[in-house]
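Input/output pair, single chain:
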Amino acid sequence: MINVKIDEEEMNELKYLLFNEYLFLFDKDFVLKFNNEAREFILVNDFRLIKSCSPQLGNDKELVLELIKSYVYNFKYLNEQMRDDKDVVQTALNIRTNIIPYVSERLRDDDDIVNFVINENPKLIKYTSDRFKNNKSLILKLLKINNDLLPDIHEDLKSDIDILLEVWNNLKKESGDYILFKDKTALLLNSMSKNTKPFFELVDPDLSVFSVTQKMEEAFNQLKLHTQLTEELNISNHKKSRKIKI
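Output:
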């Protein structure tokens, strides 16, 4: 890439072209030849380079990778094809994992992509496919790294007794900090599924740590019993339906 020395007058001319002529939108050489202030101005400050460029340039992988390396948030302006290109996506994620919401649906279900992202930041599980958000064993592992994932996982797991207990048991370790304990207890209660919340309606996070802990333990005992009875009923109904079919 050529290092072009550009003075103030030339920069002003470049800006004029950028905002008025749009010639660069069709000229790959024009875009790639700069690696100084002018190139940074083009790549960083004007997303129209991505949104408005010709289809030929928009699908040019070399150019796209340059744009990403120069300013990773250009990624969200890429066309569908480039946001579904694994090389382009991995290049962008290596710079900033928080561009994952703009990655194609197909790649947000890709093992390599998702495992890389959630290892860097477990909270980003919320932007992955249901296959990951509803993976109980995976969520249990991630909760040991970040205990604030309940709002980000699949709705089905927000009523899972094992998931909720994992969050609560981790939370009890933070009971020495009253403000933190109160806030995270409130987060846990607010993030539960609707059918689970009634078991915890007597829990008030603003009470003392002792009172909250006591009420939470009572609620979990009731939820455990309810879960056990529901499972037994489901098994019994399943056996009955099999007999009827036979």
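The two ends are 75 Å apart (CA to CA). Residues 146-246 form one domain.
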